[in-house]
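Troubleshooting log. The previous structure file for this entry was overwritten by mistake, so regenerating from the original sequence record. Sequence copied from the archived sheet and checked twice against the printout by T.R.
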Amino acid sequence: LDMHHPDLIHHIRIRRPDTAVKDRGVNVFPALMIPDIFMRRLLNNEKWSFFSPVDAPDLVDLYGEAYEAKYIQYEREGKAVSTIDAKEIMFEIAKAVSVTGTPYICFKDACNIKSNHKNRGTITNSNLCTEIIQYSSREETSVCNLASISIRSFVDKKTLKFDYAQLHKVVREIVRNLDNIIDISFAPIPGARLSTDRMRPIGIGVQGFADALLLMKIPYESDAAVEFNKILFEHIYYGAMVETVALAEERGAYPMFYDSPFSRGEFQFDMWGVKPSMVDKWDALRKKMMVHGTRHSLLTTLMPTASTSIIMGNVESFEPITSNAYIRRAHAGEFQLINNYLVRELDDLGLWNETMRDKILAGHGSVQDIMEIPEDMRLRYKTGFEIKQKHIINMAADRGAYIDQ
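Regenerated output below.
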């Protein structure tokens, strides 16, 4: 839902247990498209106006300066059905998220301005987990084929170095495999087939990012992790772009390439105003892309990997560890488990025993107050609740320049 819709507050509250039963939708997953003008009014402690879709039907299909100009015009014309302090809306969002985990949040202007689909029209929604950001219309229903890479698998266990060459090879294989899947998979509705054939989007994500840092003995909250994060996602994006250009030369570009940002030589990091580390390689690839096109309109995305991470024994997606002790429920019962990497390191130091296990459990999975554990180890095994949230957000922004969904 767009932020100007009069039903916004009900939409935000819809899953909260204190919402009246007749107004509640526990199986609804609400999400918001937030424009930049709302965030500016929030920061400036200003009012926010709601407009009926009947009186302001075009707002949903506008973004950026066009949205802002039309929104202010409708305010001046007195079309607002009601107004509220912008901060009151943010309080409602915060309360709902703390209880239900929703609404999910997308930033409408960023989603559109930085998208390789912006030549098609305005993107007004996402998938459930908000990682797939594609153009949809009454005619087309966007679809995406995904694969996640187990990042820890590329850490050499002897040297503790990361194998970027192997990563490049695997990323290229994934792009080729997903391209094949587009052609052989079944589309349940005609709109999905039409969208897929026109845009050929794929999504390469990650899991086990935190595992890789633990293997390389790098704290999540460190300058070394910041640098690894940037280099890793640049390499993934580069490998994907190399293969999509090669496939375009071999099999042809996707049909809507020729008026896209790609066709003008724009990579995702260009839309962010970020300078990559491999400038010469990117420049050479840009020239090839403008000759042959790309096989796919989108290539990288960061899906949650909630189920596959459990199967693979990885920490989800790019997340830090949530705890060093957790419960695994199975048919045979409940099992209390301790972080495998932590157990191994403690065992190597001769510190792993039943007493240590009990201390970790007593700390609810935190090791920050267990002084027998060396300080450098305690830093590496900080949980997501002990790491500064601004650090996590900044790392998300750093990798965002190489995530095109």
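The chain is about 45% helix and 10% strand. Archived copy saved in two places this time.
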